């Protein structure tokens, strides 16, 4: 594993929220999340990560957390996690791959593979229930890999969703989310938007 030369910096929750707000990435309205839950807030990480300075800085904090963890490979679920996963892998100096859905099933394609015993770090942009990350973890274990940890930019569960022994989120907060049959925005007939990657892929 290559050594990453990191100079510690502080990024507070208000500072990170300011970045999301200034880039138009923190949305308010009525959204269907990738998990299927509904929420009045949506973190569109892609609008932050399109800016190289934000991408580098955000991933630097994730990399710092795992800098002493043996990592052979970084894997992310498509589509949302690919950009942040690739940059974390670049900063760590390790191979980066992604899993994607085919006919609704998460899998490795494009010749990607994991060797038995590989230490694999799973990177995602946003988690609510952690469903996509759990599917990726299952793929890693099925191929004989070991989970080195899970890193995310935003954890909407405020730490209640535990996916690995070593888990880190740059921004951890409790964002309101509802089952569709309990959603107050649905009762008010507020139009529903589904900006998530799974929805756009119709899976």
What is shown here, in short?
The chain is α/β, with parallel strands linked by helices.
Strand order of the largest sheet: 5-4-3-6-7-8
N- to C-terminal distance: 36 Å
CATH fold-level topology:
Rossmann fold
Strand content: 25-35%
Number of domains: 1
Please state the second-level CATH architecture.
3-Layer(aba) Sandwich
Tell the overall outline: globular
CATH class: Alpha Beta
Regarding quaternary structure, what we see is single chain
Average of the residue pLDDT scores: 87
Percentage of residues assigned to helices: 25-40%
Q: Please count the beta strands (DSSP E, at least 2 residues each).
A: 9
| Main sheet summary | 6 strands, mixed
Number of discrete helical segments = 7
- Low-confidence blocks of residues: 1-9, 199-203
- Counting helices, strands and paired strands, the structural category is alpha/beta
Task: Give me the strand/helix succession.
Answer: HEEHHEHEEEHEEEHH
Rg over CA atoms? 17 Å
């Amino acid at each position: 594993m290559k050594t990453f030369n990191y100079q510690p910096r502080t990024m507070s929750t208000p500072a990170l929220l300011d970045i999301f707000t200034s880039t138009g990435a923190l949305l308010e309205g009525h959204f269907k999340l990738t998990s299927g839950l509904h929420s009045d807030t949506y973190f569109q990480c892609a609008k932050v990560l399109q800016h190289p300075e934000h991408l580098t800085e955000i991933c630097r904090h994730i990399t710092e957390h795992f800098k002493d963890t043996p990592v052979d490979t970084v894997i992310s679920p498509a589509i949302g996690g690919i950009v942040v996963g690739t940059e974390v892998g670049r900063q760590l100096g390790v191979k980066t791959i992604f899993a994607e859905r085919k006919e609704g099933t998460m899998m490795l394609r494009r010749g990607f593979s994991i060797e038995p015993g590989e230490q694999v770090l799973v990177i995602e942009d946003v988690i609510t229930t952690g469903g996509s990350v759990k599917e990726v973890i299952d793929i890693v274990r099925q191929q004989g890999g070991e989970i080195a940890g899970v890193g995310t930019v935003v954890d909407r569960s405020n730490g209640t969703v535990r996916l690995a022994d070593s888990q880190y989120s740059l921004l951890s907060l409790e964002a309101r989310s509802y089952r569709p049959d309990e959603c107050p925005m649905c009762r008010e007939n507020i139009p529903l938007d589904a900006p998530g990657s799974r929805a756009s892929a119709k899976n």
